[in-house]
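All the exercises in this workshop are built on plain-text protein records. A record pairs a protein's sequence with a compact description of its fold. Read left to right, the backbone structure tokens trace the chain's path through space. Once this layout is familiar, the rest of the handout is easier to follow. Here is such a record, shown just as it appears in the course material:
>
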Amino acid sequence: MHMTDRGLLALVRHEGIVPGPYLDVKTVWTFGIGHTAAAGPPDPATMPRGMPDDLDAGVREAFRVFRADLAAYEAEVRRAVKVPLAPHEFDALVSFHYNTGAIASATLTKAINAGNRVAAADAFLNWRRPASIIPRREAERDLFRHGRYPGGTIPVWAVDRGGRV
């Protein structure tokens, strides 16, 4: 199972695109569509600072890295969840895992595997720090529970040489 196109768009809307390395809210060097060194190369801390001279090339690189990262996150969700999932449930879980890295240990995974989808949906909100992440968790919960994909645009943000968006 892989993310649907609508799931990919929802995840990218949550993450946004920054075509240069930046410091996220936890001061972790990040690049593109939420990529950190924890996901593997490239290490955003070692990338050239600021906006790329060729914005199109920077966005292409962000998507190249995103595709590589996403394959690993999808595989980890498939390994952690032992029951069949609807496509929208899988999309919500991959979005959650892409942001937290916690699919293997999350209460929501235990609830899904126990057959309790209501408790699983509610458990998305166990992960609500920093407070700015709450709308994302609510959207992931609603996607998991009701199949409602969020709408809106995909933000593309500029970054300065200090890593500030």
The longest helix spans residues 55-80. The chain has a mean pLDDT of 97. The radius of gyration is 16 Å. Residues 69 and 79 are 16 Å apart (CA to CA).
